[in-house]
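Supplementary Methods, section 5.1.

A reviewer requested that the exact input to the structure prediction be made available. We therefore reproduce it here, unchanged from the version used in the analyses.
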Amino acid sequence: MTRIIHITDLHFWRLVWNPALLCNKRLLGNLNLALRRRHYVRQERAESFLALYRSLDADAVLIGGDMTTTGTNAEYKLAAAFVNELAQVGPPVFMVAGNHDLYTFEAQRKHRFESYFSDRLQEPEKPQLTYMPGDIPLLLVPTAKPNLLSSRGAITGAQLVATRRLLEERAPDRLLVLAHYPILDNPAVYNNGVLRRLGNAEALRRVLGVSGCPTLYLAGHVHRFSHARDPRFQNLTQLTTRALFYEKDDCPGGFTEILFDKDACTVYPWRYCDGWERASEPSAC
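The structure derived from this sequence is encoded cell-by-cell as follows.
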C-alpha cells in the first residue's frame, strides 16, 4: 500500500505596503487580498494540517502549486518554511508552480519559485518523469505562466513534445501526473472560465490519452474536489483537490488522500469543518 497526499492552492499571503512592489498586476492582487481573500484563506491552519500529516503515515506529498498569493519574497518565505516542515516528517515532497507563484513577470524574471525550492526542483520549466515510493511513475508538468490580467495557463509545443517523448521512452504501465491546471474545463463540479483555463489543454489531454497508459491527472486551481473520467480517453482520469486553507460556505478547504495497492487505486477527499474530516466512502480511480 502506497499513500499519497495531494495538497494545492495554499495561497500563503502577506499584504504589500511598498508602492514599488505594486507597479504591476500585484496592485490588483493586493487589493483583492485586502478586501476579500485574506478573510477566507486561513493560513493559520498550517500547524493543524502539519500535525495531522505527521499521523497519516504518508509515502509522499504532492503540491500542485499556488504556494503564494502574489509571489512576493515575504509569501515565499512562509511557503518555504511550510514545505520544509513537511519534508522534515520524512516522505519526499514533489511540487509544481501555480499561476499565483508566477503572479508577475518580475517574479518569473527573478526565478523566485526556483530560488526558494531549488532543492526540490530540476529545471521546473521542463516536464519531468520521476518515481515515487512504490515505484509509481510521476510526471511533473509545468502549466503556469505570468499574465497581465488573466489567470490563464499554458503548455508550449516544446513541452508537449518533451512530454510525449518521456512517455514513449519510459513506457510506464501506469502514471500519476502532477500539474496546476485541469485539462477538463467543465465537469459537473466546477466551471473553469475562458480567462482561467489552460492554453493547449486539448493537446496535453490528447498526448496523455493516446498513450493508452492508465493515468490519474492531479490538478488544483479550481479550489474544488472533483473526480471524473475523461469522456474521450477512458485511460485518463482527472482529480482536482480543494484549496488547503480555504474557508468559504460553498468552497471548504481540504486535501486528497490517494491509496495505491498493486493495480487498485482509491481516493479519499478530506475537508476542514471545525477540524479535518476524511470522507467515509472512497471512490475508485
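The chain has seven helices and 17 strands. These observations are discussed further in the main text.
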